[in-house]
Design goal:
Length: 164
């Protein structure tokens, strides 16, 4: 649940929160991002999260516009690169995120090394372990996500949307 996140809280935002917002699937995710925009919450995300969001929005748009059918959309777009030039929503989504007053954390060698150690400890895949490494480095205690796997991390408070 997001509506009780205290003003001034330090919060990391996972990719699925952005995707649910841009796909109009969660009013709660939209409200959370609005609070970030208004600087009520000290929000962070990783550069790799923006890449994941762009990729997912691109695939959603391709299906929504009827350019490809559902099912392994990235492969279908790779086979028909001329379709990619017709997709604009992913670029607009990233521009919008960059205006939301969310600090974009970068990946460096230390983050990669820490994430490798975290993968060994937690069994997380690469992107999630990079997010954990970023949160650990910046002492960000809370993540907004719809990924319950983060609940395995004992030092992390996980905030899940309640309207999904």
């Amino acid at each position: 649940m997001f509506n009780d996140i205290a003003p001034g809280a330090r919060l990391y935002i996972d990719a699925n929160i952005f995707v649910y917002h841009f796909a109009y699937e969660s009013d709660e995710c939209a409200a959370l991002l609005d609070r970030c925009y208004r600087r009520e919450i000290n929000a962070y995300t990783g550069i790799h999260i923006l890449l994941e969001v762009a990729h997912r929005i691109m695939t959603i748009e391709a299906v929504d516009k009827g350019l490809v059918t559902p099912g392994n959309v990235p492969r279908k777009l790779r086979r028909r690169p001329e379709l990619v030039s017709q997709l604009q929503d992913h670029s607009a989504a990233i521009r919008y995120i960059l205006e939301m007053n969310i600090e974009i954390l970068q990946i460096d060698a230390r983050i990669l090394e820490t994430s490798a150690n975290l993968r060994s400890q937690t069994g997380f895949l690469v992107n999630d372990s990079i997010s954990l490494a970023m949160m650990q480095r910046r002492r960000i205690p809370t993540i907004s996500t719809n990924d319950r796997d983060f609940q395995r991390v004992n030092w992390l408070e996980v905030r899940l949307p309640s309207d999904l």
